[in-house]
Specification:
The protein has one domain (4-116). The protein contains five helices and four strands; from the N terminus they run ββαβαααβα. It has helices at 33-36, 49-55, 62-74, 77-89, 105-116; strands spanning 4-8, 19-22, 40-41, 92-96. Strand 2 (19-22), helix 1 and strand 3 form a beta-alpha-beta unit. The longest helix has 13 residues, at 62-74.
Amino acid sequence: MNRVSLKRIYEPPSENDGRRYLVDRLWPRGVSHERASLTDWLKDVAPSVELRKWYGHDPTRWEEFRLHYFEELERNLVAVEFLRDEARRGPITLVFAAKNEEFSHARALKEFLEREFPLA
């Protein structure tokens, strides 16, 4: 069973989402708090402002972005451990605003969670 899912905030919530955590540092444009239907907003697991601006969702910078983001996550293990513990309790969805899921920080965060903190 996949305990950690990804979903753009512009997609409608579903009961299969489990607990929904916005993992962006900035609130997404055009989305009300009610429509977002979030459990919580976890700004602390988002990439730093500097890293986010440098990356700019440029696929050619993806691998280097991941490495820098993982370094930031390793310095912020309390927030990451919270997500791991939530995923162990049941399904969670990492909610994000980026247009391209393949190159989103949420995908990198999911990978970090599953690699560094196995949920089994």
